[in-house]
TrEMBL record:
Residues 6-307 form the Glucose-methanol-choline oxidoreductase N-terminal domain. This is Choline dehydrogenase. PANTHER family: LONG-CHAIN-ALCOHOL OXIDASE (PTHR46056). It comes from the Bacteria. Keywords: FAD, Flavoprotein, Oxidoreductase. The keyword Repeat does not apply. Residues 398-516 form the Glucose-methanol-choline oxidoreductase C-terminal domain. SUPFAM superfamilies: FAD-linked reductases, C-terminal domain (SSF54373), FAD/NAD(P)-binding domain (SSF51905). The keyword Plastid does not apply. Pfam families: GMC_oxred_C (PF05199), GMC_oxred_N (PF00732).
Length: 532
């Protein structure tokens, strides 16, 4: 039998990397198991001219389309929004757009401010030093001082506005609405061994140059040098418990498919808002018949996706097309509740530079604005390199019927039951999306755009997987406490997006990592009485 490790982390993505690096200074024996492997940037799509074609196949953001051995299938037939993720060292940070907002202070007090959902058991201020630390580690670029966003101090200057940003900014100015250059994790100067962005290609199907920070090139090199052990191609099937109800280790399949048991004194889950409830629900025992850490019955419940309402059109001036990063500006004009709008809470806006030629051709043909025949090339030239996009990230309020369960039939390549998604968009979210599309149309028409098209919701928009193991002080209404420890299992911690209480209206990665660093700090402060 293997010797027990002090801390076992499951998942090497955004949160797993951050918590591993932070705990490394304790000199404990820390082991991370990751079901994917190390990625080779020389094989990333952006190294070739066929990068867009690859994005429809082996580099799709959907695990159901990619179907790599490292992936697990997801039954999301009963959801208008499909799950997208990535399994590798670095996790979904390998594939994300590098857009880098934070949750706002108001997001932590939704019940107090608006009478819906629940307040978080911590406040924004508790995370501020960890946001700052994470920005330094990931290497953010941005312009400090946005009056409608939390104050940030990016270590690198903001991305250029580019052709698209100038057009959008002018239209927003004419309407008298707020906009600001986006914070990103794309380098604008040489930083910590990473070269600045040279617009090698679109950010989403991985950055071959390394200008976009993913945790395989930021946190993990530091963590490994500090002594953290990382085993790849190790898929965890279940977390085991001892006679006292404490986590005792994990059963996993190694790179050869051989079942192994790894004992551990502390277990940390960092598997995202779908993978984490899947693992907990698969970890049943006599003591935990409904799944591990699930006395509340809330494991897998309250799934929040962020419905994306997207509207785009075409201007006569050239835009930036697929130049990195894809989002150049943001707006928080409609972020907080305004009762006159007819819904509670609000949404953030990402302004999108454009699209590559293959994507433009495929999507425009589907939308019916690119004809076949003698007019095809003339219309394509009018569309290609002239797109402007407005995407609203709508706050998704927690609802228990939106959930992750175990599929009774579908299994991964190791025979482990796959997750099943049941999700509907609430009436509040639908009103929010309608409002966002109306505002987006105003912006585009002010910019002179024509051939306006809508995707609402974006079907392959399940990037943000939140809320399925929520944080709280009441064990009957939450899965983990205010510092990430499971109420039912004193040496089990969760650090990923599943612990979110509410979703906010922004991309969550920055907040996920700040929470992981905060929980690691709490663990270090409480080491002497960790199991009390």
């Amino acid at each position: 039998m293997k010797d027990p490790v002090d801390v076992l982390i499951i998942g090497a993505g955004a949160s797993g990397a951050a918590v591993a690096w932070s705990l490394a200074e304790t000199k404990m024996h820390i082991l991370c198991l990751e079901q994917g492997g190390w990625m080779n940037p020389a094989e990333y799509p952006s190294t070739g001219r066929d990068w867009e074609a690859k994005f429809y196949g082996e580099w799709s953001s959907s695990p159901n389309i990619r179907g790599r051995p490292e992936d697990y299938p997801v039954n999301d037939d009963n959801s208008p929004i499909k799950v997208v993720n990535y399994n590798a060292v670095g996790g979904s940070t390998v594939m994300y757009t590098a857009h880098w907002p934070r949750l706002h202070p108001s997001d932590f007090k939704v019940k107090t401010l608006d009478g819906v959902a629940d307040d978080w058991p911590i406040e924004y201020d508790a995370l501020t030093p960890f946001f700052e630390e994470n920005d330094r580690m990931m290497g953010t670029s941005g312009l400090s001082g946005d009056p409608l966003s939390p104050l940030t101090h990016p270590p690198m200057p903001q991305q250029p506005l580019g052709l698209s940003g100038a057009i959008i900014g002018k239209a927003m100015n004419e309407l008298g609405w707020h906009w600001w250059p986006s914070d990103t994790t794309v380098a604008t100067m040489d930083y910590e061994g990473r070269a600045r962005c040279i617009n090698l290609g679109h950010c989403t199907p991985a950055c071959a140059q390394g200008a976009k920070s993913s945790t395989d090139i930021t946190y993990w090199p530091h963590a490994i040098r500090a002594g953290v052990e990382l085993r790849t191609h190790c898929r965890v099937r279940e977390i085991t418990t001892d006679e006292n109800g404490m986590a005792s280790g994990v059963v996993y399949y190694d790179k050869d498919g051989v079942e192994q048991f790894q004992p551990a004194h502390v277990v940390i889950i960092a598997c995202n808002g779908v993978g984490t409830p899947r693992l907990l629900l698969n970890s049943k025992s006599n003591r935990f018949p409904n799944g591990l850490a699930n006395s509340s019955g809330l494991v897998g419940k309250n799934l929040m996706f962020h419905p994306y309402a997207q509207i785009y059109g075409y201007v006569t001036e050239p835009t930036d097309s697929n130049r990195a990063p894809p989002t150049c500006l943001w707006s928080k004009q409609w972020y907080d509740t305004d009762p006159s709008r007819g819904f509670v809470r609000g949404y953030g806006v990402q302004f999108v530079r454009g699209a590559g030629p293959v994507f433009e051709a495929v999507v425009s043909e589907q939308k019916g604005i690119l004809p076949w025949g003698e007019d095809h090339h003339r219309v394509f030239r009018k569309l290609n390199g002239h797109r402007l996009g407005f995407s609203a990230i709508c706050e998704d309020l927690p609802e228990e019927h939106n959930q992750v369960t175990l599929d009774p039939v579908l299994k991964d390549s190791h025979g482990i039951p796959a997750p099943k998604i049941d999700y509907t968009i609430s009436e509040n979210s639908r009103k929010m999306m309608e409002h966002a599309l109306a505002r987006g149309r105003e912006v585009l028409e002010t910019a002179g755009a024509t051939d306006i098209c809508i995707n609402s919701p974006i079907p392959w928009g399940g990037w943000h997987l939140l809320g399925t193991a929520r944080m709280g002080t009441d064990p009957e209404r939450s899965v983990v406490n205010e510092w990430g420890r499971a109420h039912d299992v004193k040496n089990l911690f969760i650090v990923d997006g599943s612990i979110f209480v509410t979703s906010g209206g922004v991309n969550p990665t920055s907040t996920i990592q700040a929470l992981a660093l905060y929980i690691a700090d709490q663990m270090k402060q409480r080491l002497a009485n960790l199991f009390d």
